[in-house]
């Protein structure tokens, strides 16, 4: 008589013969992350209050490598889902920004006194991008994941690096949210501090994730972050130009 072989739950380690773990409820048959699972994350329990948000934030800040490796290995119930985490941090940023009336680009607008239609259109596109930069942050998620795959192609799939990107840029949004208060109180000269802190945090996260050849990991991570950020900025500007052109046309 054939008996169903037991499987070990990748979230809590409990050995189960069924499809779901009786201890934590996670599906036992967890495999590698796919794009479908990541996209389902957007629709499934987007802002679930049952998800361990504080644990996720704590581990992403203090030990990001452990969280990322654990989640990619199948420990999905322990942490807040990556897409939900990113969106929640973005919503918190937008709400707080509106409440305190913060304009991060109030001194960055370009005023064109002379020039043709093309110059004016380029200027308006730039100003549109600056005013709606948070709406383009999804672009940064994908460019960061793409360059992580290019520079560390042997480690994880593109879908898995996309999960890493959602988590890390969720923390970036949290950093920018905290930096708003610093800029509001002490002046616009501290505006770049958010991106510098994020760069330092990104390098730390990459070291924590890969845990080997630290110098090479730092060098690769620094280069890919710059390329990803530049691609994000250029893509955002291109989209802004198309939107402004469409509105004027």
TrEMBL record:
The chain crosses the membrane at residues 79-100, 133-152, 164-187, 193-210, 222-244. The keyword Transmembrane helix applies. Keywords: Membrane, Transmembrane, Transmembrane helix. It comes from the Bacteria. InterPro entries: DUF3667. The keyword Glycoprotein does not apply. This is DUF3667 domain-containing protein. The lineage of its organism: Bacteria, Pseudomonadati, Bacteroidota, Flavobacteriia, Flavobacteriales.
